[in-house]
Design brief:
This protein has about 160 residues and is an alpha+beta fold. The protein folds into 2 domains: about 80 residues, Ubiquitin-like (UB roll); about 80 residues, Orthogonal Bundle (DNA polymerase, domain 1), CATH 1.10.150.120. Helices cover about 35% and strands about 15% of the residues. It is built from 5 helices and 5 strands. Strands 2-1-5-3-4 form a 5-stranded mixed beta sheet, sandwiched between helices. A hairpin with a 2-residue loop joins strand 1 and strand 2. Helix 2 packs across helix 5. The radius of gyration is 16 Å and the shape is globular. The termini are far apart. The relative contact order is 0.15. Keywords: 2Fe-2S, Iron, Iron-sulfur, Metal-binding, Oxidoreductase. It holds the Pfam family Fer2. This is Carbon-monoxide dehydrogenase small subunit. InterPro entries: 2Fe-2S-bd (IPR002888), 2Fe-2S-bd_dom_sf (IPR036884), 2Fe-2S_ferredoxin-like_sf (IPR036010), 2Fe-2S_ferredoxin-type (IPR001041), Beta-grasp_dom_sf (IPR012675), Diverse_Oxidoreductases (IPR051452). GO terms for molecular function: 2 iron, 2 sulfur cluster binding; metal ion binding; oxidoreductase activity.
Length: about 160
């Protein structure tokens, strides 16, 4: 550890963790290099493409820009946490069912943004889905399938809530 290193403590995918970081380390650096979580990926390095999206305290953040020092005391969720119970999250299953990915590079960002969307709006219109996901780029152009997958997941999640009620 250098003279400028610091320790941050936060919750990562439901578990308390600590990391030794340098002031310039980003969330993406820490997730990949300290915790071997590779779902969030750097693509543009400017927070414009959504590939590095993580949820911090329930809100999306660009892991390539967000400094790890700001994680102290936070709750961080990555795409690896979606299937925490050993079963695919309805969004993951819908993405598979609809063929909403090709190369998969952008998928983790789309999944986490969609999770945040459905938490705020469990029954979004296609226009609302498109608008909400507009900050995520898919170079394979699977946009129609992504919209379809989010709609399918929303329907399945709403049906499951009604069955429980």
């Amino acid at each position: 550890m250098s003279n400028t290193a610091m320790k941050v403590s936060f919750t990562l995918n439901g578990k308390p963790v600590q990391a030794d970081i340098e002031p310039h380390h980003t969330v993406l650096d820490v997730l990949r290099n300290t915790f071997a979580l590779y779902g969030a990926r750097e693509s543009c390095g400017q927070g414009l493409c959504g590939c590095c999206t993580v949820l911090i305290d329930g809100r999306s953040a660009s892991g390539c820009l967000y400094l790890a020092a700001a994680l102290d005391g936070s709750n961080v969720e990555t795409v690896e946490h979606l299937d925490a119970d050993g079963e695919l999250h309805p969004l993951q299953q819908a993405f598979i069912d609809c063929g909403a990915f090709q190369c998969g590079f952008c998928t983790s960002g789309f999944l986490l943004m969609s999770k945040q969307l459905l938490a705020a709006n469990p029954d979004p219109s296609d226009a609302e889905i498109r608008n909400y996901l507009s900050g995520n780029l898919c170079r394979c152009a699977a946009y129609p399938e992504i919209i379809q997958a989010v709609r399918l997941a929303a329907n399945r999640m709403n049906e499951a809530k009604q069955e429980v009620s």
